[in-house]
Every structure is written in C-alpha cells, then in structure tokens.
Specification:
This protein has 2 domains: 5-143, Response regulator (Rossmann fold), CATH 3.40.50.2300; 147-242, Arc Repressor Mutant, subunit A, CATH 1.10.10.10. Helices cover 43% and strands 26% of the residues. It has 8 helices and 14 strands. It has helices at residues 27-39, 50-59, 76-86, 101-110, 122-143, 173-184, 192-200, 205-221, and strands spanning 5-9, 12-16, 19-23, 43-47, 64-68, 92-96, 114-117, 147-150, 153-156, 161-163, 168-170, 189-191, 228-233, 237-242. A 5-stranded parallel beta sheet has the order 4-3-5-6-7, sandwiched between helices. A 4-stranded antiparallel beta sheet has the order 8-9-10-11, with helices on one face. A hairpin with a 4-residue loop joins strand 10 (161-163) and strand 11. It is elongated.
Length: 244
C-alpha cells in the first residue's frame, strides 16, 4: 500500500507499512538513512548499486524508490529509465550531490517525483517522502479500480462483463483490459504506446493494428449510448469521453 492502513482481524490488528527501495553506494550514509526510515515505520531494502537495485525491484513490490544518482555498475538516472520503461506508477525520489539545474531537469524528464540534493536533513527527507506518498496514493487506489459506470453502461473488468439495460457483452481479456485503461483515463489521453506495452507487451506495427481493431469493437459495444465517444488523438492515442 502507499499509505499506512489498519485492518482488524478479530482482536488482532495488522499494520502494513510502506516498503522502500533505497539505492545508495556510500555504506555509511546508506545505513544511516535506512536506520532512520525504519525507526519511522518504513520497511527498507538497501542496494549499493543500480544493478542490485534492479534485481530487488524485479523480485519485490515497493511503494517508493530513493535513488542516488552517482552509483557504480548502473547510475541512478539509468536505473530510473529502466524502471520507467516497465513501471510508470512507483514513485521515484533522487538523492544526489548533482545540484545543477540541468541535472534536476533530466531527473524530472525521466519521471521522478522529487529531487533532493545532498547534504539533506533526515527531517526534510521524511517530509518529502510523506508528501510524495500522500500525493500518489490516490493514483494507486484509482489504478486498482475494477468497476466502472460509463454512461448507461456498467463495466466489471474483473469479470470481463459490459452491461446495459438490454444487453450483456462478455468481453475478451484484451477488450476488457483496453476498456479498463480507457476508463481509468476517462477525459484524458490514453497514450497509444503505453497501452500497447501494458496489454500486448510490445509496440510493434502489427500489435498496433490489432489494438485499432479492438478499439473499433469497443465502439460497437458502446454505440447505443450517444453520450459516449472513443476518439482518436492523432499521433498520441485515444480518449474516452462521456458527455453526460
């Protein structure tokens, strides 16, 4: 989870803490930051280089990554680029001595959520972490949604069923996944390449043509409600619009 939560099970209360991946090649600083975060209720995995960080990231689920930029084997910017190729949601915070404006711009262009220059205080780091987790928790909750109302239709992506007053459509897995992404991005652009990578696992020409066919099928399913449109955004992707 991206925030603390308590769940009561009889008389037992279970507390789930945010899990953080910390990449820091300075052993002293790494252990100090790890210890302070653990004292403040976070679970922390420490990696001393970018390659180890990738191994940890692929094996476990993390709520946030704290990334030193200047690391051996694989630097922090390269690590973040590899993460963003397959994961656009996990928050990334750079911790670095690289304080030039150009370095900060590069960090944010890669897709980081915050950029903290060294030296920094533990208090500042904790405040920045809490702010990022609070800001991104709503995104995570939205991404887990499986039930949607689309005009006159109701859509259950888990059961792959699209219902209206007079009809029920049993969708294929790809139809359901594509409609779910459109619903999650309703009134915003669903990036074509993002959808291809998430559903088809590639951005090839043939997979792109296949997605266009699925978009046409979804339009046919939704055609009975004139307030619903799936429009093409040239060179970018698609947008689901519900006008009422």
């Amino acid at each position: 989870m991206l925030k603390y939560y308590c769940q009561s099970i009889g008389k037992l209360e279970v507390l789930t803490m945010p899990n953080i991946l910390l990449l820091e090649d300075d052993p002293n600083l790494g252990l100090i930051v790890q210890e302070h975060l653990q004292l403040n209720g976070y679970e922390v995995t420490l990696a001393v280089n970018g390659e180890d960080g990738l191994v940890f990231f692929d094996k476990n689920k993390y709520n946030l990554c704290l990334i030193d930029v200047m690391m051996p084997k694989l630097d922090g910017f390269s690590f973040a680029r590899k993460i963003r190729q397959k994961d656009t949601e996990t928050p990334l915070i750079f911790l670095t001595a690289k304080s030039l404006k150009e370095d900060k711009i590069e960090g944010f262009q890669i897709g980081c959520d915050d950029y903290i220059t060294k030296p920094f205080s533990v208090e500042e780091l904790l405040l920045r972490i809490r702010a990022v987790l609070k800001r991104t928790s709503g995104v995570a909750e939205k991404q887990s949604q499986t039930s949607f109302e689309i005009g006159e239709y109701s859509f259950d992506s888990k059961r792959q069923i699209l219902n209206t007053k007079n009809n029920q459509y049993n969708l294929t897995s790809k139809e359901s996944e594509l409609l779910r992404l459109l619903c999650l991005n309703k009134d915003n652009i669903l990036d074509r390449n993002t959808a291809l990578k998430e559903i088809w696992g590639s951005e090839s020409y043939f997979d792109g043509r296949s997605m266009d066919v699925f978009i046409s099928k979804l339009r046919k399913y939704l055609k009975n409600d004139s307030s619903i449109e799936i429009i093409n955004i040239h060179g970018k992707g698609f947008k689901l619009i519900v006008s009422r």
